[in-house]
Amino acid sequence: MKNNSISTDTDVIIVGAGPVGLALANLLQTQGLRFALFTQESEPRPVYESRAEGVHVRTLELFERIGVIQKAMNQGRPLEGVSLYSLKQKLGSFSLKDPRSAFPGALILEQGKVERILSERLQENGVSIHWGHKLSALVQTNGCVEAQFVDQNGVTIRLQGKYFVGCDGAHSTSRKLIGVDFIGEPHPGSYALADVDIEWHQEALDSNVHVFMSPLLLLGKLKEGSWKVASLVPKGAKLPESPEEILSILQAQIDHHGVLAKLMKARWTSHFRISNRHVSTMRKDRVFLAGDAAHIHSPMGGQGMNEGIHDAANLAWKLALVVNGKADDSLLDTYSEERLPLIEKVLKDTSFMTNAIEIEGPGRWVRDKVVSFATQIQMLEPLLREEFSGAHRTIGQTRIIRESNVSFL
Predict the structure, then answer these.
(1) Phi, psi of 83, rounded to the nearest 5 degrees
(2) Strand order, beta sheet including 106-108
(3) Using CB atoms within 10 A of its CB, is residue 20 exposed (0-12), middle (13-18) or buried (19+)?
(4) What is the domain-level CATH number for residue 73?
(5) From CA 189, how far away is CA 33, in angstroms rounded?
(6) How many CB atoms sit inside 10 A of residue 390's CB?
(7) Range of 49's domain?
(8) What Å distances lie between residue 392 and 16, 110, 298, 342, CA to CA?
(9) How many domains does the chain have?
(10) pLDDT tens, 35-71?
(11) What are 292-315's pLDDT values in tens digits?
């Protein structure tokens, strides 16, 4: 193994070039900080992989600050609302339009597109992403962090920075290297997922996200006309592996819920399990964790990618103040202090939604009555919208900022 020690100093080392790492890099760029962005992925994610696809209004406001809002709006599709179904009947709908925001509502924008938009913004500002570099070691000393990477040619690279942020996903190497606990438990269910063309044998569903309950089936139209389809894998069924097996499970659930449609060509398929976990702390000395490296939960409400980007927003301006000598290092403690309680609430809310959607037996009748009633009462619509999207949660403001009446989102 070759060694190539780099002594070049930087303010912040970022690991992970998903939506969170890219958002953090762009936000640090707006603050004028020096940073280096590394990822073990050898190339950008294909834009046709939707994975996460809901961008809520608070995140759109951040995109405006970064300077990518027009691209996001052009490449996405406005999401107007959510429709809920049970026993082949529509129970009701609610709007996702937030009158408090300058934006009309949430946006369907696939994760691959989000990453491309944020990457292109960095390139416009002359920033390069270091692809194909796997984090192998972290050492903290007085005043700096030294990170060691191994590239695709087996060359070891060492870089020193004042701070380090791990945005490297649910299986985070950063988290493991600093020994932070990942508290929680797995959800018993498994899920199948596809971006697929649909041949409708009824009037096509509208532009809402359509949530069919007990068992879960979700359909949402993407910008180019294909559909995101996700469902719970039936209990006892083999976990699907091939695209054909995934489509077979999704088609069976579509038929079960009485949707007259045939799944056609799949553009992308996946299967996954979910867990509800969060770290015990989002900071350990000069190392911070953000996004899936710090918290994972049910995808209900499409909050995961958004909350990770909100982690970045909370941390970026604080790093800028501390690095530029305008605030004490203790300000950075407020990152974990503010974000962790919000994340715990996210886990609680998304777990509740998931369990409610999957209710069987007598509880199903009660749930359906409550949903039908709530979606017909106009004054309850803001509550439904905010619980679904997480819009009621702030990104986090420190006591210092609150007292000075200055908003940093």
Answers:
(1) -115, 140
(2) 54-55, 106-108, 77-79
(3) buried
(4) 3.50.50.60
(5) 43
(6) 22
(7) 2-79+101-184+276-358+393-404
(8) 28, 23, 18, 10
(9) 1
(10) 999 999 999 988 777 778 889 888 999 999 999 999 9
(11) 999 998 888 788 899 999 999 999
